């Protein structure tokens, strides 16, 4: 089944594949890479205050000629200045009137404290500056603190997600599922990009050969089976095209189980 959308707990929908702008670059080069992602078929851009390239993402959207309602934009408050000032600065850089999703980037930047920061996020949503609000890198204890005073349940929790951390992440995944909080998965390709040579290589290679797919496509398809919004990136158009095609890759239950087990085996080392 191709990449599609996931319904959030606030009744909005989010594309389940996103192009991440972390380490993407700045100025013309950064713009060109976002344009390239649009051309490949990405409709969801994930950026952040501290990535330093919201301007480039905004300029790329403007250059592309794509109408605002055809692109889903996520950005994050990373702890610089106040939340209220920061979202307005982000909107100016992105050259838009609202973002589709605004996140607290981590518990430690949720200033002055989690509950106060979340109340500010709720206010921004009420003002229409963000259609949906959520968090990133939050553990169950952080979410417990937030929910004690929250009027709005976070729509998403964006976390590190790949086979080598999957087993240890299960309690968080279960918690979020019970609260109807969608998981966004960043760095799903770590087993092949920065931690090759581990147990996950074997099942991924086997599936790749059988399906005539790349290892990256297999890992993206695996993350998709977990019901996550998958965030990935590349500077190469050919790889971006492959990431789009990964939406059509159907893994069997045995495939998924094999990757899960291999990930658990390598979780300590990798």
TrEMBL record:
Substrate binds at residue 105. Transmembrane segments: none annotated. InterPro entries: AKR, AKR3C2/3, Aldo/ket_reductase_CS, NAD(P)_OxRdtase_dom_sf, NADP_OxRdtase_dom. Gene3D superfamilies: NADP-dependent oxidoreductase domain. Pfam families: Aldo_ket_red. Keywords: NADP, Oxidoreductase. One of its GO terms (molecular function) is oxidoreductase activity, acting on the CH-OH group of donors, NAD or NADP as acceptor. The record marks 76 as: Lowers pKa of active site Tyr. CDD domains: AKR_AKR3C2-3. Residues 17-189, 205-260 form the NADP-dependent oxidoreductase domain. The active site is at 51 (proton donor). Belongs to the aldo/keto reductase family. This is Aldo/keto reductase. It comes from Sistotremastrum suecicum HHB10207 ss-3.
